[in-house]
What does this fold into?
Amino acid sequence: MSDELALALDELVASGRFATRAEAVRTAIERLLDAERRREIGRRIVQGYEAIPQTDAELASATEAAIASIEEEPW
It folds into this structure.
């Protein structure tokens, strides 16, 4: 770890944002893993839509349902 990174980490601990360096590092790793998991889920969703795209009829039906649900709102 570079001195600059260690200093920034120490500043986070000193500010009270994290109790220890370990907690800060653990949080960073958890966030990284969560971001990667979400990225992979998004990639798979796109892959699914590319493999089996929606039909024009499905899109029209979804549009009609969305419009109807908005029209039902009291706003």
Q: What stands out?
A: The chain has a mean pLDDT of 96. The helical segments are 3-14, 21-51, 56-71. The radius of gyration is 23 Å.
